[in-house]
Amino acid sequence: MNLALLVTLTATLSGNPNHGWQTQRDVTPANSFPGDPNVAGQPQLPDDLKGVILEYSSWGGFGGHPNFTLHLEKNKAVWEGGWMVRKSGKAERRISDQLFGQLVRAWLNAKMYTMRDDYCGLVLDAEKTSIELKAPSYSKTVTECWSTRDAESLSPPEQYFQLSHQLEELARSNHWL
């Protein structure tokens, strides 16, 4: 009787190629986009970019990386520097609407709206950066951790780093970073 049960069970399992734990797990790498970028849908922003904010933050944690926030609006850049920066405290500069528009377009072209929110995983108290876009009816923050940059499975797509470098260059050009 046990032999008949074993033969039936074996025949049932071997006839179903989709059986087992392997079909249940998600094997999407963390550095991929969560889905088709065309399906995620680009956010609708006001044509004049009024009420749109782009913010880049770096938290140095306990390591040797800078701590600051760069807040950009339609016609101004606001800096709040912590440690390991050239300018500690607050600073403000006027920026052109054209420059702000270019940076918002860079955010859209990088398809930041399709990226995962968090590339840190379970890493706590790590040095990290984030890029956030806020609009009257939309908000998206993408966070990455320095400690996971070499771990391909936890790094954001290269577009994240390209935009972060543009934002860091703006801070450097103002002698803040």
Helix/strand layout:
Layout: H1 2-14, H2 37-40, E1 53-59, E2 68-72, E3 76-81, E4 89-94, H3 97-109, E5 128-135, E6 138-145, H4 158-173
Antiparallel strand pairs: 1-2, 1-5, 2-3, 3-4, 5-6
Task: Outline the low-pLDDT stretches.
Answer: 1-32
In the sheet with the most strands, the strands line up as 4-3-2-1-5-6
Q: Do you know the CATH topology?
A: Mago nashi protein
Number of structural domains: 1
Largest sheet: 6 strands, antiparallel
At the first level of CATH, the class is Alpha Beta
**Multimeric status of the protein:** single chain
- Tell me roughly what share of residues is in helical segments: 25-40%
**Rg, Cα atoms, Å:** 23 Å
First-to-last CA distance: 77 Å
Q: Say how many strands there are.
A: 6
Describe this protein's structure.
The chain has four helices and six strands; from the N terminus they run ααββββαββα. The model is unreliable at 1-32 (pLDDT under 50). Helix content is 26%, strand content 23%. A hairpin with a 2-residue loop joins β5 and β6. It has a single domain, classed as Mago nashi protein. With 177 residues, it is α+β, with helices and mostly antiparallel strands. The protein is globular and about 40 Å long. A six-stranded antiparallel sheet has the order 4-3-2-1-5-6, covered by helices on one side. The protein has helices spanning 2-14, 37-40, 97-109, 158-173; strands spanning 53-59, 68-72, 76-81, 89-94, 128-135, 138-145.
